[in-house]
Amino acid sequence: MGQAVRVKAEKNEKLGVYIKGANKRGFTIQVPGPSSVSVVKLQSGRNEMSTNAKALADWYRDRGDETWNVNYPLTPNSLVLEVGCYEGLWSSRMASKYNCFIQNFEPVKSFFQTASNLFRDNPKVSMFNFGLTDSNVETEFALDEDKSRPGYGGRIEKVILRDVAEIITSPVDLININIEGGEYTLLPRMLSTPVAKLCRNIQVQFHDDYPGCVELREDIQARLSETHVQTYCYDFVWESWRLR
Fold it and tell me: What are phi and psi of 130, to 5 degrees?
């Protein structure tokens, strides 16, 4: 896999998208059609962004949130796990689409409470106020909406993370992982224990603002390919792997 591309903040004919002016939150990519998305990856003092812009534009062009991200061979008896459920948007889509069993893991109390309220009338959705990683630990998260992660600065909250190998001990039809860089710790633990082989489908968002992310992702992909087959991939946006 190559390095993340850099794109000037202007119309880019090669990508077929408009990359508009920067503000403190980032750039706006306007893809063909009604959708647009803000990309929050500014280079200090420079009029360009660092992200896999083509993959992101392709994702919105292909309406990935409505297609790849939710289309799986699931039934009402299927078990789906979401690691880092935030306020429950993706899980609510899966519950509506498949009426499946869902287990949500969210360590931040306010997000956990919002998601719990969303699913309070659905007995098939279980909520857990902890995250998953490679060990049992209490740590501090720097709160930044859906980008909250371990770190310092701004609002801090102590959260609980649990060893995934102690939590996932039976087959799972789909696990969805979106944990702001925590995937680089979680997935190796899954792969070094029976957990990965218990997951029929592994859908993950790799983040490109984590130190050594390109090499770490390549290593994880190589290990995943021993047990799973990649079913789709938009670099550093979303990808999915199905058990062989």
Answer: -155, 160
